[in-house]
Give the backbone structure.
Amino acid sequence: MKFFHGCTALITGASSGLGVEFARQLAPHAHALVLTARRQDRLEFLKAELSRSNPNLSIFCYALDLADMDALDRFTRWLSDEGIRINFLINNAGLGDHSLFQASEWRRVKAMLDVNIAALTRLTHAMLPVLRTFEDSAILNVSSSASFLPVPRLAVYAATKAYVTSFSEALRAELRGTGVSVTTLCPGPVNTEFADVANSGHSGPEMIAPEFLKIPAERVVYQALLGVERDRARVIPGWAVFIGMSLLFFVPFALIRFGLNASVAGLDEDQESREDIASPRPVR
């Protein structure tokens, strides 16, 4: 991947999942990596791993809660003070919450809005002046296949990712000819900690995806980086997900709405059945 040779990449959400894999695949090519996440211990562990196999790689770890805008501003000032010039921005960090909207805790909803939308937008805005000083630089925004349609029980998450996809497409058009490319990654289900976190704290049905739709994180990241190198606007890893999402554009939304309503009714009936089994009614 010649495009990334000697790059300085900033990866948000680098302590787990796709963020870790982005760091691993970029390490042999990059000049420097800036890794951010809330969990400093995980960042340091990843740094030690990467340093062993890439001794010439400069790695900076910065503990950052992206939901804290003041902390995010301090981080961008730190980059400037340290003279770290980013030419590849990976907005990977994201939060999900799998439940009915009414049953959601507001702190989780607000965290999704803060991280998935506000922080991504703020960080991109702060990095753009530096990115534009390079002849070639790139932004990779990690969205989701859920961005293409409303998803009951993931209503806010899907809406935030719809923002990411739309924002990325518009920004790509604005930056055409500047040397800054913008690529949107829209994966389907991936085996990461995301589902465990999204399901935590709720008693309803868990978010479980069919196995044939799941894509390994290594493959998702490789295809994403290949898409950036080829200046692709959008990357949807996996043929099953790609075909499914492509077909959606030909389906009248009235039919999609009917399917969404039926899926929610089915989930509610399944939940009621489980509750009846767990707490059987007395026989009279």
